[in-house]
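Hi everyone,

Forwarding the result from last night's run.
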Amino acid sequence: MLSRRRARGFALIEMLGALAIAALLLAGIAAMMDSSLDDVRAQQAAQYQAQVTAAATRALKRDYDAWLQRANAQTPVVMTLADLQATNDLPAALQTRNAYGQHTCVLVKRTANGVGLDALVVTTGGEAIGDKELGLVAASAGPGGGSIATSAPALARGAFDAWRMPLGAYLGGSSPTCDPADAAPPNAGHLANEIFFNGPGQQINSDYLYRVGVGGHPEANAMQVPIWLTHTFVEGAADAANCGAAGSYANGKLGADAAGQLLSCRNGVWRGAGGHWKDPVRTADDLPTDASNETGDVRLTLDTFRAFAWTGNAWQALAVDQNGNMIVPGVVSANQYEITGRVVVNTPCAPEPSRPNAGLVSMGQDGQVLSCQGGKWLPQSGIKIGGTETACEILMETPGATDFSCGYTYRGPYPNPPLITYEPDGTYTYTINRPVKLDNNGLIAVSAYMHMSYATCALKGREGQMRLVVDVIDVQSNQVIAHSEAQSTKLIEDAATINVTLNQAAEPRSGYTVRLSSKWATYDSYAGTPWTSSYCSGGKTFLQTPLVTGWTINSFY
């Protein structure tokens, strides 16, 4: 019995030992799995960083001059993933975060001497990477791979300390981030790849002509001796071997003909380099009609020095514009001038918009020559209205009177020179000047009137008189060239209107002034100017306007 109990106890101890060993093994396996997952995450971040670095390197090589213009030597500019995706350097499907949730971008700035570029591919935001993992990521992130360690947060260093870049000096006091949501610029726990890039074409071989542009080295694309084209071609000849065929034309190739004239391939045919202007010919009969012609070609005939254009089917003399109009800057001389179109008098007309000041000539339905005058077709002889003005002014008002309605009512003092003057004989003069402009020899016609009402219901014995003087004055000489006037009889508690008509032929010159001088005087013992006027009838009082002058001025050609 004792031996059995001992045997059972020994088996239990062995089992407990086995369980302890298994627990230790499981813990080790879990730790190994965690470490393996961390390694995979680090490798994924390194591949992401290497992909962005390669894309940025391609973009800088291709668009070096553009980035050199954008960058400065003080603070870096940010090249985003969106920039690289827009230029197809990165696939559009690439996510904006790496395996640690960090955003990636490229900080580009000019070198200290300003002649090259520095570029640092960095990450911001996301989860900070521990120093242990940083080393693995940096070592696997391709050429220039590096990081910013917690142990040296002010320094971006390459894997195995291959390069060093002080962050403060590179950022120049700025705080760029790869994403607006990131809280801080590149700092500890983030990646930094240096792109060792001093611009394309730094190793220029001056013995060769470069086929592509080399930033900063225009001499790489310059020939220093003449290009000798020894093989000759025929102008106007199709050449599928050298100029290509439909669908695959080699436009832009250069060659020369037997005479040494430069040719270029255009749509499978060798064409002269002089554009569409071709060599002149002796007469119009010598104009070629073979395959050497191209639509738009122009040749000059030496007998008449007249230009002809090839329409694609025939040669056409260059005599009219795109609207069928012939434009001659000089004088047109002809034995006869044939007008084939007909227009109707007084219908609208207008010159070409490109020549708004040009004159137009046509023919009426009866064969009479018409010209475009003031926007209408009119004959050369006849009456044309140049301008018309009709207006009046109330020289003195009775408030509330409605017998006259004018555009202007004077309400100032009397006298009020130079508008209103007073003469020693008791006469007031109100002067109105109206300008008249003639565009041709014509007639100035003036019809004017003056109305005076000098009566009241309450006061009797009022006496007054008016006189209207009309002058036409030549502005250029300041001389009166026409004069007329009218005077009323003495008004005794009455109202009257006088009229003046004046017609004067005149040249255009510098313009004219029609002067209307309205004169009046009162002879009674009442207060005189100004006054109000009224009359009574049937027990009612009617208000009247004391003084009014009106006019109509016409110009005719």
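The two ends are 155 Å apart (CA to CA).

Cheers,
N.
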